[in-house]
Amino acid sequence: MFQRLLLAVDxxxxxxxxxxxxxxIARRFGSRVxxxxxxxxxxxxxxxxxxxxxAGPEWASGVWDKQAKEIVQEARKAIGLPDDQVKEEILxxxxxxxxxxxxxxxxxxxxxxxxxxxxxVSAFFLGSVSDKVSHHAHCPVLLVR
Length: 145
Fold this sequence. Notes:
Layout: E1 4-8, H1 13-29, E2 32-39, H2 41-55, H3 57-79, E3 86-92, H4 95-105, E4 110-114, H5 120-126, H6 129-136, E5 141-144
Parallel strand pairs: 1-2, 1-4, 2-3, 4-5
Helix pairs in contact: 1-3, 2-3, 4-6
């Protein structure tokens, strides 16, 4: 039933709870899980711009990549599945759009994500990522509280 799971992670407590849920589903169904973290383009540009005056855009990009990898590694630890069952992806763009695109292009059966992420203030003004994904994804979306 759920053979391919896309777990969206952002480093928030909600995404770590979603990781535990994804692990449970994967164990039950023998699913493969892809951990996906999306670096929002405006955040990446902002980081590069604010740091560029001191160390240059290459250094800023390296810091941003390192942070994304740390988020994915933390989720990998939380999920606790064997390496052959877990894949990692770091994407750049608008989180909701990139999650939906990755899910469709990868033919995922289920997207799992926290109901609230790190951007709760911007979500108040722009709508939450989880809300947008749940309305636009081609497959079922499990939001974990």
